[in-house]
Amino acid sequence: MAKIDKREGIYPAAERILDNYLELNNHRKTPERYAILRAVCSMDGHFTLDELGEKLVDGYKFPVSRATLYNTLNLFMELRLVIRHRFQGTTKYESCTSDNNHCHQICTVCGKVTEITAPEVVEVIDELRLKRFRKDGFSLYLYGICSTCQGALTRKSRKLKK
User: Fold this and answer.
1) What is the pTM of this model?
2) DSSP state for residue 81 in the 8-state scheme
3) With contact defined as beta carbons under 8 Å apart, do 52 and 38 qualify?
């Protein structure tokens, strides 16, 4: 797994990984691949295919087809430049950095996804010894109800009791 050094920025390191892969496999270095990579690296947090397409059109004036986006993101997943998450029937992506350990809390009412820091979980998984398997990272999904939805459900419950 290639690690991206945060000090030098995400895009230059990701670009080198993509360059090396394309050269080694005799693939074309298309402007679409690099525009998509730049947009992915500029995205904050999780994003959908549609949000990435909008970013390319609005931010970079570089429209690409949905098929090109999908195929390029599949390539980026192979290279571990992007992670795909499936949150309650929605597919979201996230650019990879050197920290490949992800903990998410997901509200089962509104679908809000929040990345959380859980050093205790990271420590336990780091110390976990697995036979014939090398860990590269993990994703943990905690499902529940966010405080906003809890408040709304409580208010609704109180109204119904009156």
Assistant:
1) 0.75
2) S
3) no
- Order of strands across the sheet with 138-144? 113-116, 101-107, 138-144
Q: Measuring CA to CA, how many Å separate 2 from each of 10, 27, 80, 145, 155?
A: 12, 19, 7, 35, 49
Tokens of 15: 């670009």
Query: Over the stretch 79-128, which tens digit does the pLDDT of each residue have?
Result: 989 999 988 788 999 988 656 677 899 999 998 888 888 889 989 998 99
Question: How many angstroms separate the CA atoms of 93 and 86, rounded?
Answer: 9
For residue 5, give every residue at least 6 positions away whose Cβ sits within 8 Å of its Cβ, in sequence order, or none: 13, 98
**Cβ–Cβ contacts within 10 Å for residue 130, how many?**
8
Provide the Cα torsion 46, 51, 53, 54; round to 10°.
-140
Q: Would you say 39 and 55 are in contact if contact means Cβ atoms under 8 Å apart?
A: yes
